[in-house]
Amino acid sequence: MASRSQPLRGKMTCKKIFWAVLPHACFILSLVIYAFLGALMFSHIEGNQDATSNEEYRRFLQNLTDLSRKLSDNVTENEKMFKNDIRELFNTADPVWFVIPEERWSFFGSLFFCCTVFTTVGYGNTYPVTRIGKYLCMLYALFGIPLMFLVLTDMGDILATVLSKSYNEFRKLQSKILASKLCSGSTCSKRNELKSRAQSKIVINEPLTIMEVLRNQSGMKRRPVKYRNVELFEMLIARENENTKPVRNKSMERWSSCPELAREKTVSRVIENFDKIGKELEKLDVPIVLMVLVIFVYISCAAAILPKWESNMDFQEAFYFCFITLTTIGFGDTQLEHPKFFLFFSLYIIIGMEIVFIAFKLGQDRLIVLYKKVISFCAEKKMPSKKIYPK
């Protein structure tokens, strides 16, 4: 029987873990599928467009040809004028004309564009050109941004739980170390003796049986009783029957006799997991300095790795790029030469955005507390002092 019960317990624990992980896996999987579908859509629409077939591009080439013909042999005299004319001409140029659509809007390039859309980073170096692509981009962002925020909130709960537990364990360890330093040998021994004496005095009362309850109530029969306590006796009888019966696996009885009950219970647990999204972030209470330190270390690790992929970046430039990305500012002044490699860094971006989101949430809570203190202080100053008049 023991050998059978162990595999059953293992299966039940696996099922519990599965139903607990299911909401988080659904959110992440739906975001991944959404990104892949968007990459296929934009690579098909924007990758087949020809931006160099319009009239503006032909006019640009004609003006460039006229400027080159006007340049005389004596370059020193017309050099300044030529520079001004060529600068004005290139200001009117569209950057799309100098890009090959098949290369920029490949599957990986489109996937990188989708990640910048629903993360609200938007570097600006890749954007849709066709009219249908712009409309689909708005529709894609309309559903993708809430999904991304939902994933951030859900994963933020996990990170908040890890951070709060780690911080609490660190505080407990710190208090134990301080207590061990402050506590001398004699005082500690006295405290332990007092604790052992107090624990020895504790008496655990077992629950009363039916006979004991009847004996106690037999002496109280003389008192007038308005209501008969039938429910109490029914509960006691049921408890006596449970104690006399052999121990059975209730979960197996539920699955075998009425599986609908177990299904409803598991479904309700999954629904409760969905309802608890965002609750851990509300309960998180760690110092804001600790979160700033975590963000600094997190960005520094990426800034040390990224220059190995991008040759045009050093540590400072990579640190600036990661900060602009994780805060979803996305100026676009620093561009990537190999966005394919940075796509493998997408998990880093999502986790980093969650850490920054938690830091912003903590900063927001601190600001609210500060505003409350300021308002209460100003209100106390403006309140007129109560004057006591003699009767």
TrEMBL record:
Signal peptide: none annotated. Belongs to the two pore domain potassium channel (TC 1.A.1.8) family. InterPro entries: 2pore_dom_K_chnl (IPR003280), K_chnl_dom (IPR013099). GO terms for cellular component: plasma membrane. One of its GO terms (molecular function) is outward rectifier potassium channel activity. One of its GO terms (biological process) is stabilization of membrane potential. It comes from Pardalotus punctatus (spotted pardalote). The chain crosses the membrane at residues 21-42, 105-123, 135-153, 286-306, 318-336, 342-363. Residues 93-159, 294-364 form the Potassium channel domain. Keywords: Ion channel, Ion transport, Membrane, Potassium, Transmembrane, Transmembrane helix, Transport. This is KCNKI protein. It is a multi-pass membrane protein. The keyword Membrane applies. It holds the Pfam family Ion_trans_2. Its main location: membrane. It is found in: Membrane.
